[in-house]
Amino acid sequence: MNNTSETEGTGESEFPTKGRLLGLDYGTKRVGIAISTAEQNISSPLDNYTRQSVEQDQKHLQKIISEYQCKGLVVGLPVHMSGDEGQKAKEARRFGDWISQFAGIPVRYWDERYSSATAEEFLMNMNISRNKRKAYLDKLAAQIILQSFLDSPNRDQKPESF
Q1: pLDDT of residue 21
Q2: Cβ–Cβ under 8 Å, residues 73 and 107
Q3: Helix or strand or coil: residue 5?
Q4: Least CB-packed of 100, 106, 118, 140 within 10 Å?
Q5: pLDDT at 157
Q6: Residue 32 forms beta bridges with which residues?
Q7: What are the residues whose beta carbons fall under 8 Å from the beta carbon of 156, sequence distance 6 or more?
Q8: What number does CATH give the domain 21-151?
């Protein structure tokens, strides 16, 4: 996965290197949620959230951010194989910026190419039935996105382009 990080939303230029991070696999119907350790070395799948309304979405996400004392947000950015951003990437950026604003934490965007496919393959290899895979897929994809960010030596650098 390529680095596509940017800090937006709160206007902060520094992204925290300590404290828990919230990882999101954005979707218009469901959002996969993952959380990192305070040391930012390990991520774990946390929740599959079915979106409801703007108010309910904010309440649910704010509760998680407060409960886990999240210091930053990593949102998976769906980009085309060419590296170009389409409509879904714009929606993910709007969603991340919105959370950053109401929660008061910085956001980074991270290339999510192959995260859902990797999660699906992992679940298939674990012999988890198709029906049960749906319960794990989004939060596992969020965990893969967040772990990719945590493992990247370039996570603190803003790239010129993909």
Answers
A1: 98
A2: yes
A3: coil
A4: 118
A5: 55
A6: 25, 48
A7: 5, 15, 17
A8: 3.30.420.140
Using CA atoms, how far apart are residues 59 and 50, in angstroms rounded to an integer?
A: 13
User: What is the CA angle 159-84-76, rounded to 5?
Assistant: 70
Query: Is 80 exceeded by the pLDDT of residue 127?
Result: no
Alpha helices in 5-129 (DSSP H): 54-67, 87-103, 115-125
Copy the structure tokens of residue 120. 């699906």
Quick check: 161 and 7 in contact, CB under 8 A? no
What gap in Å lies between CA 1 and CA 124, rounded to an integer? Answer: 21
| DSSP letter, residue 15 | -
Read off the pLDDT of each residue in 98-113 and give the average, rounded to a whole number.
Answer: 92
Domain range list for the chain = 21-151
Q: How many angstroms separate the CA atoms of 91 and 51, rounded?
A: 14
Name the band, by pLDDT with cuts 50, 70 and 90, for residue 82: confident
The H or E element spanning position 24 is: strand 21-25
pLDDT in tens, 20-32: 999 999 989 999 9
Q: How distant, in Å, are the alpha carbons of 12, 28, 98, 153 from that of 140?
A: 28, 17, 23, 22
- Of the pLDDT bands very low, low, confident and very high (cuts 50, 70, 90), residue 159 is very low
